[in-house]
């Protein structure tokens, strides 16, 4: 959709729109924090801020926790607010899979450059599998059948189509280059069509293009501030950040990273139980890893992604974690929920990491 649009021109309209949804002005921004995983390098946050507002006083910093980069950016902004380092942060993520650079290392002794698709996430002594191959390993290790993966993928599309048809995404989507609707949800999918797809990463595997996410271009941004500052500026409803945790796991089983990060978060917050979670956004890189993680956490798969997830809506790496929080904001604040509601965002990360953040609606 945006194959000819530079990354900063995807991010800038989203930054502007996020700030415009608040009573704050550009001069109040303490920093712009954006996650990015496969981009051109440099500092896409600063570049995007300059494009967005043409204001040289607005700083920017770019984070890279690969698929978790966007959620990491939001958490980092929340931690800065907790520390009293500033009042207003614009945080999120941006990715252009279409325009990611061709990467090469210099050839040895005058040989041709060595082109490669991605950076290393783990040394060979441990293992550094490709994402799809690792998802197949997770499926086999945790007995996640092809049928169950396909059913989860179909549900993701069905939920996304229902939400899209009913305008659930309308207020959070910014039109770019005349495009204002996600292009990947499919209303023509069926169990039969999914069953006909061949394994994508190994002839005996169960992961297919149908039960894995598409790779997309996109951006997401949120405005992060303190409850007191928000209330002083007339804001009455917000999404309150409670805590977050990151954790490492075996890179060969990278998809179950959220299990470790969620358990770590719960250990630090013993008053919280997963049974109290009312809203869950879990990045759907592969149905296999989502299902395996939810099984290990003893969480119903029906709870995850009430309006569809990345299998239907897409996975723009650096933005996906921020999209999870945007979706929680829409479900808990745009459609106000009682303060007893409890939400989590979970994402697995290349190299064997997980990231989990916890939120609740706040009436200020």
Kindly describe this structure.
- Helix 1 crosses helix 2, helix 3 packs across helix 11 and helix 8 (257-268) packs parallel to helix 9 (287-297).
- A four-stranded mixed β-sheet has the order 2-1-3-6, sandwiched between helices. A four-stranded mixed β-sheet has the order 7-10-9-8, with helices on both faces.
- It is an alpha/beta fold and 364 residues long.
- It contains eleven helices and ten strands.
- The two termini are 39 Å apart.
- Pfam families: Thiolase_C, Thiolase_N.
- GO terms for molecular function: acetyl-CoA C-acyltransferase activity.
- This is Thiolase family protein.
- Residues 241-359 form the Thiolase C-terminal domain.
Largest sheet: 4 strands, mixed
Q: Any idea what the radius of gyration is?
A: 20 Å
Strand order of the largest sheet: 2-1-3-6
Distance between the termini: 39 Å
Shape: globular
CATH C-level class of the largest domain = Alpha Beta
Unreliable parts = none
The helix/strand class is alpha/beta
Q: What is the β-strand count?
A: 10
Output the helix-strand order.
HEHEHEEEHHHEHEHEHHHEE
CATH architecture of the largest domain: 3-Layer(aba) Sandwich
Note the total helix count.
Answer: 11
The portion of residues assigned to helices is 25-40%
**CATH topology label of the largest domain:** Peroxisomal Thiolase, Chain A, domain 1
CATH superfamily descriptor of the largest domain: Thiolase/Chalcone synthase
- How many separate domains? 2
Averaged pLDDT: 95
Strand content: 15-25%
Protein name: Thiolase family protein
Keywords: Acyltransferase, Transferase
GO molecular function: acetyl-CoA C-acyltransferase activity
Family: Belongs to the thiolase-like superfamily. Thiolase family.
